[in-house]
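[agent] plan:
  1. take the single chain provided in the ticket
  2. run structure prediction with default settings
  3. attach structure tokens to the ticket
  4. add a short note for the reviewer (M.T.)
[agent] executing step 1
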Amino acid sequence: MAKKIAIGGDHAGFEYKGKLIQKLEGLGFEIKDFGPFSESSVDYPDFVHPLSSAVENAEFELGIVICGSGNGVAITANKHQGIRAALCWNEELAALARQHNNANVLAIPARFVSYEVAEKMAQTFLNTDFEGGRHQNRVNKIACS
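[agent] step 2 finished; step 3 output follows
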């Protein structure tokens, strides 16, 4: 069964989001686009909060959020207790976010990485498993509630 992935962001991430959806669907992932649906200026929390709630509620296995710096979408996603969003700018960080932190949302800074890097990070993130072990105890201490 294909992994269910939630994707969204803001206008600065719109182009990358469209390309990633095509690529990931071609690889067999089931994708839901939470928006935005054009390059018009938007407020990213309007899209990131519903996406984060859906990942938090296990409607989707993982999420990808994309904005210009990646910071706004990561900060917003991380307001949800069950979300561990990781801002990454290379494949190694994307892998470590999954392996060591059990990150469930990847934040991509579209204005600071090429599309090719974004695509490689997304694939790495989606195909890397959490190592558990010594990392599980640390992950258990992240949430405040």
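[agent] step 4 note for reviewer: The two ends are 32 Å apart (CA to CA).
[agent] ticket updated
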